[in-house]
Protein: Thymidine kinase
Organism: Streptomyces thermocoprophilus
Amino acid sequence: MSELVFFCGTMDCGKSTLALQIEHNRSARGLQGMIFTRNDRAGQGKLSSRLGLVTDAVEVEDSMDVYAHVVDHLSQGGRADYVIADEAQFLAPEQIDQLARIVDDLELDVYAFGITTDFRTKLFPGSQRLVELADRVEVLQVEALCWCGARATHNARTVGGVMVVEGAQVVVGDVNQSADEIGYEVLCRRHHRRRMTAATARAAALSPDVLPVQQS
Ligand SMILES: Nc1ncnc2c1ncn2[C@@H]1O[C@H](COP(=O)(O)OP(=O)(O)O)[C@@H](O)[C@H]1O
Ligand SMILES: Cc1cn([C@H]2C[C@H](O)[C@@H](COP(=O)(O)O)O2)c(=O)[nH]c1=O
């Protein structure tokens, strides 16, 4: 029975790497996948992992019907044995419904990968729809870590290392950006709630307020 699987986790936990591994293992056995992505950091029509691997993919545009795209491909004599959708949080809810239809009507496995929540801990609409529709939701096992060593569960947006809570939901970016750039950092819930990033924790530790007072 084919299924819709949502592989999720924080940023930088290995989702795209797993997508590329699934693609590699299936293509090594002669299967052919249809790979979708949207807004990958490597550019339009790319699925890339921080381990340096990258493959070509179909860029999902706003108005695209992903079900119709696969049907067109098949009806023109193309082959698709399974479907991968990376950065699935950026897909519209209707496009997630189209992925489910690929599973149900075309009987293809669909593997979707994405972060569940944004920098304000709110579900992305595409991820919400995946949680609602997926046959299985798998949380990635390679856990990203907060600066304190706890499992990172949330994504923070930063400017110069300082967490921000205002702004557009979608801003393509990466972890470990240099100062002044908009970047991201994964945090445990405790430190996300306290807005305490690695940089602000370091600054607080160095502050004279928290140094032991020398009595003479
Ligand atoms: N130099 C490195 N050596 C080993 N593993 C690395 C290295 N750089 C990144 N990684 C691994 O790659 C993961 C990020 O993979 P990626 O697929 O890009 O994540 P995601 O798609 O979830 O954002 C990191 O959590 C880490 O495990
Ligand atoms: C938290 C958050 C993230 N994004 C963007 C930043 C990246 O371009 C992607 C996540 O990619 P990854 O492969 O999982 O690292 O999402 C965003 O636009 N808005 C957010 O709130």
Summary: The chain has two domains: 1-142, 144-204. The longest helix spans residues 93-106.
